[in-house]
Structures are given as C-alpha cells and as structure tokens.
C-alpha cells in the first residue's frame, strides 16, 4: 500500500510504502494480516525503513490505533530496521491510524481491532485496589461472625462472688447461742443481707 505525497519542500516524490502480509493461523482458524514494514521513499529511492511490531488483525477486520509511531512515548510500534540505516534520523507518527489490507467491501473499513491493551496501568491499579477492598470486607465479616454478645459472655465468664471479710467481734454481736438438747447452735440477730462484690 503506497501513499504518494508528491514534492514536499526538498523531498522530491515523497512516498510512504506499507508492506502488508497475510497468514493463516490454525489456532484461531482464520487468516490474519499484519503490517510487516514501513518504508519512506523520496528522490526515487528508499531512504528509511521501519519494522512494524504489534500491528495485526484478522483479515476480515481492520486495525485501529490512536498513535502508531517510532517515538517511545507512543510505545514505539515502528522500530528502525538497522542502526546504520537513515531511519535513525526520522521520527514517524501517525495519528488516528486505521488500516485494512484485505477483504475490503464497498470502500469502507470493517470492524476495527484496537491496539489498546486490556491491561493498562490504570486497569491494573483498579484491580489491585478492588482486591484490597475485598480483603478488608472479608476480614470485617469474619470479625462480625465471630463476635459474641455481651450477655452470653458475662453469663459464662462471670467472676466468683466476693464477700467482704467480717470482723470477729461483729460476728460475736450478730450471733446468739441457742441451747437445745445438748447441741450448740447460733442464730443471727441481724437479718440484714450481706454485700456482694462482683
């Protein structure tokens, strides 16, 4: 596929040539096309060559990408073919790039396969944050399930009753001996209830 621009400034007969290939993949049971190479021609000779990486789609689809570029900030889908080539001196960027090599019907692009990755950094961070929130929620539910009511807790684990020590002289006042058939017993004079500390 050749895009001819004609004369632009000092560039005589500028042409951008896109070399497309098609292959059949048994795993997907369909033909795929890929952009194999991009060449820049002017002055009637090839001046720069870039190898294309990751630009492919099923043959019945088109390929779309917001940026196809040789610049690292756009993920550099175009890579210079060699270090000695003049392509090192060129920076190529296509904006709103869409291409379809085969099975074109009515001069329109077919459904586009986009180059956007399914696992971008933003999506990965969202997944990590969701996982952290799920772990916190699971821990909170675990704690709520194993929480015991206060009533049952105090019924089962009540401390033993503590009776205050009563002095011996008070005990002497409060008890009165009963003489009755040779057995000695005592009766409390004060019928007050004792204090219990828990």
> Number of DSSP strands?
13
Strand content: 35-45%
Major beta sheet summary: 6 strands, antiparallel
- The shape is elongated
| Computed CA radius of gyration, to the nearest angstrom | 45 Å
Rounded to the nearest angstrom, the distance between the terminal CA atoms is 94 Å
Share of residues in helices? 10-25%
* Order of H and E elements: EEEEEEEEEHHEHEEE
Number of domains: 2
Low-pLDDT residue spans: none
Oligomeric organization of the protein chains: single chain
* Helical stretch tally: 3
Query: Which structural class do the helices and strands define?
Result: alpha+beta
Name the average pLDDT.
Answer: 76
Membrane topology: Single-pass membrane protein
Domain V-type proton ATPase subunit S1 luminal: 1-102
Family: Belongs to the vacuolar ATPase subunit S1 family.
Subcellular location: Membrane
Describe this structure in words.
The protein is 20% helix and 42% strand. It is an alpha+beta fold and 198 residues long. It folds into 2 domains: 2-116, no CATH class; 118-157. Strands 1, 2, 3, 4, 5 and 7 form a 6-stranded antiparallel sheet that branches. Strand 2 and strand 3 (30-42) form a beta hairpin. The model has no long low-confidence stretch (mean pLDDT 76).
């Amino acid at each position: 596929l050749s895009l001819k621009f004609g004369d632009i400034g000092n560039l005589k007969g500028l042409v951008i040539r896109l070399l497309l290939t098609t292959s059949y993949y048994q795993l997907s049971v369909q033909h795929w096309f890929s952009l194999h190479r991009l060449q820049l021609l002017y002055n009637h000779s090839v001046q720069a060559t870039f190898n294309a990486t990751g630009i492919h789609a099923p043959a019945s689809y088109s390929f779309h990408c917001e940026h196809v570029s040789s610049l690292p900030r756009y993920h550099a889908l175009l890579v210079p073919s060699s270090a000695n080539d003049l392509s090192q001196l060129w920076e190529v960027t296509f904006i709103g790039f869409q291409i379809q090599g085969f099975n074109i019907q009515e001069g329109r692009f077919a459904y586009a396969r986009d180059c956007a990755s399914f696992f971008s950094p933003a999506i990965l961070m969202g997944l990590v944050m969701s996982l952290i929130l799920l772990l916190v929620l699971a821990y909170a539910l675990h704690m709520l399930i194993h929480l015991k009511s206060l009533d049952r807790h105090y019924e089962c684990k009540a401390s033993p009753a503590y009776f205050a020590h009563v002095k011996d002289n008070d005990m002497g006042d409060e008890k009165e001996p009963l003489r009755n058939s040779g057995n000695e017993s005592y009766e409390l004079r004060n019928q007050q209830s004792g204090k219990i500390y828990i």
